[in-house]
Amino acid sequence: MEVWLDNRDNLADLSAYRIDCIDCLIQPIEGTTNTDLPLIFIDGKSLIQSGKVIGEIIKIDGSEGQSKARSLVGSVSWLLLEFENWSMIPIENIIAACVGSPTKVAALLRSPAEAQGAAFALEIGVDALVVIPDQLMINSAAIVKSQRGEIVEKTNIVKDNEEIKLQPLLITNIESGGLSDRYCIDLTSLLEVGEGMLIGSSSSCMALVHGETIASDYVPIRPFRVNAGPPHAYIVMANRTTKYLSELKAGDEVLIISSSEYCKSATVGRLKIERRPMLLFSLKNTNDKEAQIFTQQAETVRLVGTEKENIAVTDLTIGQYILGWSDPDARHIGAAVPSQVVER
């Protein structure tokens, strides 16, 4: 994490401040400062370095400012956030949007207390703290900078036929899940036997829910459909973010994974929502992490056993193992972030 000194008023006498912790100086395009610090010039709302536009200043004064910042993710190197009223939520949302992209976030601080929040938002933090020429502000940023360790960001990019490692999940309890608004996800392409979606109540531990590709004595197959569960459940998308089932819409790209552990993407064509009785399964992964999944209480809904057999949820028993997926990262607006979250 860097510390930038905001000298846009071009008034600061740098000799009056401790600047050994300053990584960059911001000043107007017509400004002149006698310094060896790297310079970022401001021209309107643009950030310019070495004659090239590297980013934009975004004023966060409501949802429009946040949306503007998120729309620029991936197309600029830096977003410098200014606030009408300081708020952590848009910082967290924009940091989450930038995970896995080349865009970095800088936040203009107005008080020393804001440094800690910005530096550790989502346990990731901004990439630069921007402070005004004030020794207390500079000192606060320097302290927080020293507290921040290196954070390794990881990107998750799904390609067709990429492998995702599945693991056994132990069923520790089965009980009635009451009545629920049940979502069937109908795709614009067909599923094969063995294919399904990763779904569950925990964003870091989900079960493989099989598609309706198995013949039944009572209903025809629906090889484009996965009976996914209630609206609160998570689903893994094609880009490895997650969404709640209630957020899905036609045109979304979801992750399809097979019991053989290869994956591909598929497009949602329709959601079918009906009130149905549910079963609640309590699960435990190989690291003893506990999780849950609700499924419709119906023979046509199947999970996948460790021998790759497709098992109707009405036939499952406590002590059986099913296939699923676990991820140590938490999620913020669907994006994986290396922070601690408890879901139960």
Architecture blueprint of SSEs:
Layout lengths: L1 E5 L17 E5 L10 E5 L2 E4 L2 E9 L2 H10 L5 E6 L4 H11 L5 E5 L4 H7 L8 E4 L3 H13 L14 E2 L3 E21 L7 E8 L2 E6 L14 E5 L4 E3 L5 E3 L8 E6 L3 E23 L5 E7 L5 E3 L5 E3 L8 E6 L3 E3 L2 E3 L7
Parallel strand pairs: 1-2, 1-8, 2-3, 5-6, 6-7, 7-8
Antiparallel strand pairs: 3-4, 4-5, 9-17, 10-13, 10-17, 10-21, 11-12, 11-14, 11-16, 12-21, 14-15, 16-17, 17-18, 19-20, 22-23
Helix pairs in contact: 1-2, 3-4
Short account of what is shown:
The protein has 4 helices and 23 strands.
Folded structure, characterized:
With 344 residues, the protein is mainly β. The chain has 2 domains: 2-147, Alpha-Beta Barrel (TIM Barrel); 162-337, Endonuclease - Pi-scei, Chain A, domain 1 (Beta Complex), CATH 2.170.16. The chain has 4 helices and 23 strands. The chain has helices spanning 63-72, 88-98, 113-119, 135-147, and strands at 2-6, 24-28, 39-43, 46-49, 52-60, 78-83, 104-108, 128-131, 162-163, 167-187, 195-202, 205-210, 225-229, 234-236, 242-244, 253-258, 262-284, 290-296, 302-304, 310-312, 321-326, 330-332, 335-337. The chain has an 8-stranded mixed β-barrel, surrounded by 4 helices. Strand 7 (104-108), helix 3 and strand 8 (128-131) form a beta-alpha-beta unit. Helix 1 (63-72) packs parallel to helix 2 and helix 3 (113-119) packs parallel to helix 4 (135-147). The longest helix has 13 residues, at 135-147. It is elongated, with a radius of gyration of 25 Å. The two termini are 33 Å apart.
